[in-house]
């Protein structure tokens, strides 16, 4: 727990890293200063892009004692304002799952290579980033905890599959390689409570370690303080659950707020 | 994006973006998360010119009702103009 006479510092900056196919992409990196080692986090931006909320979230993880790296999964789609780039990706039907997973593996390896990491790396994402977190935790070895916040299209009908998204993430459940935390809203339509229940059944079937929380009076994106979907109580509780979960599985230093 | 409901149509015309007028080549129409409208999903239209990069974009984010009203208004205005003999068409194009 933070005490007012403690030293606190942080370094946050844009870096480059190797993603899928060895491509060099931008990433935002934030880490605490002071006594190490730190657990690592890969922070996956949402469908609306690599935006301010995500750079803030990356710093939030650093504030809580993690060396956090947020890769720009839209780097190959050009540069401009996060909205303009995200709009281009939206029109193109998103980024390919294979590419996103490759970028996230690269981010995990980047974090693992740092000299002040405690050997544990987690992954966090919201919206499409929650879906990507689940895919990365299932298809890549090397993550120690995964947080999926309201990732839609985990359960996908056959007609929803595309060349970019050829496999529904739920079909990788048997390969899930680390404990999973899921946060969802009862009023969300993607994922709907029925889809979350279906996902949970699949996780149980394969005996995976998980923790799901379904919040009443919340829909999609209830952490986003800049959107009408924000729900203060649910968001505060949700962040507490995120950090409690990560502390359990990543050995987070005693530090908060 | 989360719904992935999107269609792209080739268009011809001009749009006024943050740096001034530019030639628009495509319209991307989606029903997905908006960036600004206070809705979980909106009917989004981006008038873009892909050759000029992501910044060549004129964006609108509409409610479902507004989108329907806009479509009706566009069709009504075109019909009105056609009835008055005002429609400009490329040579050889047939009237609908």
Question: What can you tell me about this protein's structure?
Answer:
The complex is a heterodimer of chains A (257) and B (96). Chain A is built from six helices and eight strands, in the order E-E-E-H-E-H-H-E-H-E-E-H-E-H. Chain A has 257 residues and is α/β, with parallel strands linked by helices. In chain A, helix 3 (97-113) crosses helix 4 (128-139). Chain B is α+β, with helices and mostly antiparallel strands. Chain B contains one helix and four strands; from the N terminus they run E-E-E-E-H. Chain B has one helix at residues 64-83, and strands spanning 5-17, 20-32, 42-48, 57-62. The longest helix of chain B is centred in the C-terminal third of the chain and has 20 residues, at 64-83. The termini of chain B are far apart. Chain A binds chain B through residues 47-48, 77-81, 83-91, 93-94, 127-128, 152-153, 160, 162, 165, 189-190, 219-221, 227-229, and chain B through 1-4, 6, 8, 26, 28, 30, 32-33, 35, 38-40, 44, 46, 48, 50, 53-55, 57, 59.
Task: Give a quick summary of the entry.
The complex is a heterodimer of chains A (257) and B (96). Chain A is built from six helices and eight strands. The mean pLDDT of chain A is 96.
């Amino acid at each position: 727990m933070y005490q007012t006479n403690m030293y606190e510092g942080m370094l946050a900056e844009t870096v480059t890293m190797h993603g899928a196919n060895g491509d060099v992409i931008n990433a935002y990196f934030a880490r605490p200063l002071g006594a190490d080692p730190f657990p690592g986090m890969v922070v996956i931006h949402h469908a609306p892009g690599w935006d301010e909320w995500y750079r803030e979230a990356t710093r939030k993880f650093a504030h809580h004692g993690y060396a956090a790296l947020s890769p720009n999964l839209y780097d190959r789609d050009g540069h401009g304002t996060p909205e303009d780039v995200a709009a281009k990706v939206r029109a193109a039907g998103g980024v390919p799952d294979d590419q996103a997973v490759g970028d996230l593996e690269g981010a995990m390896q980047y974090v693992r290579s740092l000299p002040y990491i405690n050997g544990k790396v987690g992954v966090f994402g919201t919206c499409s980033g929650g879906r990507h977190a689940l895919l990365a935790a299932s298809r890549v070895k090397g993550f120690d905890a995964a947080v999926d916040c309201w990732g839609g299209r985990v359960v996908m009908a056959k007609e929803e599959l595309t060349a970019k998204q050829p496999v529904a993430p739920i079909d990788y459940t048997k390969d899930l390689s680390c404990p999973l935390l899921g946060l969802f809203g009862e009023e969300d339509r993607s994922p709907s409570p029925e889809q979350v229940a279906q996902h949970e059944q699949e996780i149980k079937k394969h005996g995976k370690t998980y923790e799901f929380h379904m919040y009443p009076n919340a829909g999609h994106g209830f952490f986003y303080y800049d959107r009408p979907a924000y729900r203060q109580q649910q968001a505060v509780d949700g962040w507490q659950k995120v950090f409690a979960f990560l502390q359990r599985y990543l050995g987070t230093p005693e530090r908060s707020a | 994006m989360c719904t992935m409901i999107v269609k792209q149509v080739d268009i011809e015309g001009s749009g006024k973006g943050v740096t001034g007028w530019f030639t628009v080549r495509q319209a991307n129409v989606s029903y997905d998360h908006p960036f600004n409208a206070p809705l979980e999903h909106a009917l989004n239209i981006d008038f873009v010119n892909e050759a000029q990069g992501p910044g060549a974009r004129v964006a609108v984010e509409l409610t479902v009702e507004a989108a329907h009203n806009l479509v009706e208004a566009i069709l009504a205005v075109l019909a009105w103009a056609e009835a008055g003999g005002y429609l400009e068409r490329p040579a050889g194009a047939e009237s609908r």
